[in-house]
Design goal:
Elements lengths: L2 E3 L8 H5 L5 E3 L4 E3 L9 H5 L5 E3 L1
Antiparallel strand pairs: 1-4, 2-3
The structure holds iron/sulfur cluster (SF4) (2 copies).
């Protein structure tokens, strides 16, 4: 299980700054989550203005 960022992402970077495991990095058109590092805490979903991170 890991969170995944949908295409709704507007690349604001808020989630990357809050992720406790630094699992989130900037991708080509949106931010992406490294499933190997994600610990399913949900923090990214909580800070995202467009609810782009979803639990898989
Ligand atoms: Fe990081 Fe938590 Fe979001 Fe996973 S659920 S990407 S660990 S903030
Ligand atoms: Fe994208 Fe939401 Fe993360 Fe901002 S907080 S970079 S909109 S997923």
């Amino acid at each position: 299980m890991a969170y995944k960022i949908s295409d709704d992402c507007i690349a604001c970077g808020a989630c990357a700054a809050e992720c406790p495991t630094e699992a989130i990095t900037e991708g080509d058109n949106k931010y992406v989550i490294d499933a190997e590092k994600c610990v399913d805490c949900g923090t990214c979903a909580g800070v995202c203005p467009v609810e782009a991170p979803k639990a898989e």
